[in-house]
Each structure stands twice: as structure tokens, then as C-alpha cells.
Amino acid sequence: MSARPYATGPATFDNTTTIGILEYKKSASASSSNNMNIPLLKAKLPQFNDTTYAMKFNQKIRSLATRKFPVKVPKKVDRRFFFTVGLGILPCSKNQTCQGPNNIRPAAGINNVSFVQPNTALLQAHFFNRSKGVYTTNFPTNPPFKFNYTGTPPKNIMLDSGTKLVSLNYNTSVELVMQDTSILGAESHPLHLHGFNFFVLAQGIGNFDPKRDPAKFNLVDPAERNTVGVPSGGWVAIRFLADNPGVWFMHCHLEVHTSWGLKMAWVVNDGKGPKQKLMPPPADLPKC
């Protein structure tokens, strides 16, 4: 087996081909002489930044969708979200000097919000009902302003910043479309969701069309993941069931981007049943 990394960003990385050898246990009918005559097939791998090839490859991944391994993709949607994912700029932090023009720095965000890490743990603030001054639950369900997300960027690329979350009732079925933007360059962002698996319904290049693209959604045997790449200059649609109470991060798995603020969090409130509630912290949990 041979493999090559896929990347769209400007950072340098090891793009050499990796090779793995699989050895199968010989059957009684197999002979060594026959095996010697089998030709070695060398894979023709795509370029490391071939987004179209990468997307077509990912679209072939399916769940088994059998009785033993059923696909529990939510068919009914309670709440729909549309998130833009990408880069932008922010003013330089106090008492610091940044190299950007007018003392600005590169940043990243979701729906124009660059996440600010609080000093108090989000889960702790949620459990003890002390969110005031730690976080708010007014994270935008849609971009604050519309533009050609994969075309010419808007003149104002300044991001907002804050510790904003989305609050969900227990057992809410969520449909989320994540759209890459061309601000400071289109790039594939691997988005990882804590606390849940989700189903990858569809993905495409360009701007998501809410009238046409939902017809492409695979509700029969979609792949079940916890990380998905938002295509460079494209979009991806997922669904998940919020049946795990707590506070759960969703962030880009490119470390520099998550440090720049490309993350947010979902608050899933308790349900009514005894097994639908967030457990208290253990008695021996160290305190700050």
C-alpha cells in the first residue's frame, strides 16, 4: 500500500510517499510459485494539493448500513446551521507589536467569530451554572453577512472575537453545513468535533446552494466520522444527534489555526432521564 499526504496550505511538510506491506496468511491452496508470478502494481498517486481528487476519493467512503452495523443518521432535523470557516485579521494584542500593516495579526474564525479561550473551564462554568463572565450562548447560526465565500474576498476581513457557544437541548438533531472561504487564501480545514460522531452527507466545490445541494445528501449509507475536511474552496454537510450532555469543542485540527481562534463549542443541556444528565466532577478532582 502506498499513500501520500493531502495539503492545501503554504506551510512546508514532508510530502514523500509512504509504503506499507500487508502480508496475508497463506491458504492451503496457494502455492509460492503462483505468487511469484503476480506483478507488482505501483499506484499512480495524485498531486498532494489535488482537492478535486481528494474530494472524489472521500465521497467513495460509505458506511456498511447492515443490520449488524446500522446507520443511525438523523432523518428529521431540529436545528440547521451554516458556518463559514476560514481566516481573517485581528488587531494586535495589548502591549504587543505585530508585523502586519497597521499593527494587525492573522487570525481564524467560524462565522466571523475568533474564539477566545476563557480562564475558567467551560464545562465547570456550565455545570455550576456560572457562565456569566465566562461565555455566552449567542454564537451566530449563520454568517453575520453574506458574500461570495469562494470568490473575491470582501474589503473588510476583520474578525469579531469572543467566547461564544451554541446551546442545544438534549437529543437535538443538528444539520451543519461548513463553508470554506477565500479570505487570505482558500484552504482545506480538518474540523474535529468532540463528544460525538457525525455523518458526512455531502461535499462540494464552490458556494453551498441551499436550494440545489440538499438533493445530493446521502441519508442511506453516509460515512460516520468525528473529523472531516472542509474542502478547499468548497463545503461539507454533516448531521449529528446531540445526546451527550456537556460542553464540546469543535475546532480545526491544524494547530496554528486552532491557536488563531478557529474553534467554537456546543453546550448540550441535560435531558429528563437519570442517564441523560451530566455527571458531577469527581470528589478528588484537583482544584486550580
Automatic annotation (TrEMBL):
Family: Belongs to the multicopper oxidase family.
Keyword entries, A-Z: Copper, Metal-binding, Oxidoreductase, Repeat, Secreted
GO terms, molecular function: copper ion binding; oxidoreductase activity
Database matches in InterPro entries: Cu-oxidase_C, Cu-oxidase_fam, Cu_oxidase_CS, Cu_oxidase_Cu_BS, Cupredoxin, CuRO_3_LCC
SUPFAM superfamilies recorded: Cupredoxins
Taxonomic lineage from the root: Eukaryota, Viridiplantae, Streptophyta, Embryophyta, Tracheophyta
Protein known as: Plastocyanin-like domain-containing protein
Subcellular location: Secreted
A single cellular component GO annotation: extracellular region
